[in-house]
Amino acid sequence: MILYFDPFMGMAGDMTVAALVDTGASVDTVNAAVGGLGLQGLSFRFQKIRRQGLSATLATASLPTSGPHRHLEDILALLEGSPLSANVRDKACATFSRLAEAEARVHGCAVEEVHFHEVGAADAIADVVGACAAWDALGSPQVRCGPLNLGSGFTTMEHGTFPVPPPAVAELLKGVPVFSFGEPIERTTPTGAALAVTLADSFGPIPHGAIRSVGYGAGSANSAGAPNVLRAILMSETPQDGFISVIEAQIDDMSPEILAGALDSIRADGALDVFVTPVTTKKNRPAWTVSLLCASGESERFADLLFERTTTTGVRLSRWEKRELPREVKSIETPAGALRVKAVTLPSGRVRLHPEWEDVKRLAEESGVPFQEMAEQLAKWLG
Q1: Which of 191, 215, 277, 337 is in the most buried spot, having the most CB atoms within 10 Å?
Q2: Three-state DSSP class for 169?
């Protein structure tokens, strides 16, 4: 399964929770997760509303009447001491860690000194945990996110009035495709930005697949123009036979670190795959052949990206026919815990399961067994 966030009018924490519930995540599961944190009265109320004529779900958090400012260690202790599943807890902790790191860079202080006055309030804790629980309830699908609409104008926070995007959002979204559209308001919040960069594996256009469900999470403001919603699209990863473009370039004058960073940024911009092959060029000079795969209609864009982000002065373009097996990522329960697997359907109809190795690593660490031993145990269990 693939979950695609389409933040054409921005992304906030409550919009994310609402979009995932509108897509099909269980309301009871979300409220059980936030209700188990031990913060009295914390829950969500979901209601159907309209934004510019479009039906969407609005998530409103019921919050404790008062609460302290918190440091990162306080929030992590709250999450780690809760009955949340490991999958939800890890994503929520990672989200708040990213927020703290961004705030620390903005304020020029240590992460431990950051006060979560705005992003650490009970409503943000509810948003982060609720979004992570809803994602997990959908089967913890692979997440891809489109370019984020940041908005424009000014926004007022505890430290004063700042231009949009506010400093923490700008820090969180370094290297992420963004744009600005609509009347001047803040459209992507720090919580929404942190969820985007934590949940999403990549950023770019909508991937190939079959749409299974579409949900809309409403923002609190009913701004004019386009509907103020976050769209979430749940898809089966069923690539179709067809054609792809292949772009190749030979590079012999970039350091491995800089080349790796350039290729990572191109992957984030939507390349289907990018890989390098060591070669020997004229004068016996060692070099790399960079091979970039993209949709057949995007070869010009990605050729330009290679020119802009690497030192190559020429590329080779070709068009390949491809054939792929239907596949989807889903979460299953194993004796060691929850495991994401890629289910590949063979021409015979038989389904072959491939474990996601990050999950195998996590289960090995949680169980205190060597990685290889955990991999062998799961391979036997999967058959």
Answers
A1: 191
A2: helix
Residues 236, 231: Cα–Cα separation, whole Å? 17
Fold of the 242-322 domain: Alpha-Beta Plaits (3.30.70)
Spell out the domain ranges in the chain: 2-236, 242-322, 327-382
Find, among 347, 327, 336, 346, the residue nearest to 382 by Cα: 336
pLDDT tens series, the chain, 383 aa: 899 999 999 999 999 999 999 999 999 999 999 999 988 888 999 999 999 989 999 999 987 766 667 788 889 999 999 999 999 999 999 999 999 899 888 878 878 777 665 445 788 899 999 999 999 999 899 999 999 999 999 887 766 788 889 899 999 999 999 999 989 999 999 999 999 999 998 898 898 777 999 999 999 888 887 899 999 999 976 545 578 899 999 999 999 999 999 999 999 888 999 999 999 988 888 999 999 999 877 899 999 999 999 999 999 999 998 888 888 888 888 888 889 998 898 888 889 999 998 889 989 998 899 999 999 999 888 87
* pTM of this structure: 0.66
Both tokens of residue 96? 């708040």
Tokens found for residue 238: 């069923």
C-alpha distances in angstroms, 374 versus 89, 361, 366, 381?
22, 8, 11, 11
Residues whose CB falls within 8 Å of the CB of residue 93, separated by 6 or more in sequence, listed in order: 76, 79, 80
